[in-house]
Inverse folding.
C-alpha cells in the first residue's frame, strides 16, 4: 500500500473525497429546509394554542385536530433532522476513512463502503419522513381552505 508522501497521492485522496463533500453540502441544504419547516410548524402551534377558542363545538374539534397534526409534523421533522445529521456524520467518517486508508496497514474499503451505505440509508429514511411531513402539511392546508370556503359561502 502506497503511503501519502507525494503531492500527487494527496491530490488523489482529495479527489476521492469530493463526492462525499458535495453530499455534505446537499445535506446542509436539506437541514436548512427542515429547520425552516420546523420553525413554521412551531410558530403555527403557538398561534393555535394561544388563539381564543370559540364556544362552537366543531371549531374546538378542528383546533384539536390541527394541534395533533402540528405535533405529529414537528415529531417527523425532528426525526428527519436527526437522521440527516447522522447521515452527515457518517459521510464525514467516510472522508476520514478515505484519508486514513493509506496510513494503516488494513484495507478499509469494506468499512468505507459500509459507512457510505449506512449514511445513504439514514438519508433515505430522513427524506421519507420529510415527505410524510409535507403530505401532512398539505392535507392540513387543504382542510383549512375547505373550512374557509364553507364559512365564506354561508
Amino acid at each position: 500500500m502506497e503511503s501519502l508522501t507525494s503531492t500527487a497521492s494527496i491530490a488523489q485522496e482529495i479527489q476521492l473525497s469530493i463526492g462525499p463533500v458535495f453530499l455534505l453540502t446537499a445535506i446542509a441544504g436539506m437541514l436548512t429546509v427542515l429547520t425552516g419547516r420546523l420553525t413554521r410548524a412551531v410558530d403555527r402551534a403557538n398561534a393555535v394554542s394561544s388563539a381564543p377558542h370559540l364556544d362552537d363545538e366543531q371549531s374546538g374539534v378542528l383546533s384539536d385536530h390541527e394541534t395533533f397534526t402540528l405535533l405529529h409534523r414537528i415529531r417527523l421533522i425532528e426525526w428527519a433532522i436527526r437522521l440527516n445529521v447522522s447521515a452527515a456524520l457518517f459521510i464525514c467518517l467516510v472522508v476520514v476513512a478515505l484519508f486514513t486508508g493509506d496510513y494503516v496497514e488494513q484495507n478499509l474499503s469494506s468499512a468505507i463502503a459500509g459507512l457510505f451505505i449506512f449514511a445513504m440509508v439514514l438519508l433515505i429514511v430522513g427524506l421519507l419522513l420529510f415527505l410524510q411531513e409535507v403530505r401532512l402539511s398539505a392535507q392540513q392546508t387543504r382542510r383549512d381552505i375547505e373550512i374557509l370556503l364553507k364559512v365564506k359561502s354561508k
User: Anything to note?
Assistant: Residues 109-153 form the longest helix (45 residues). The mean pLDDT is 87.
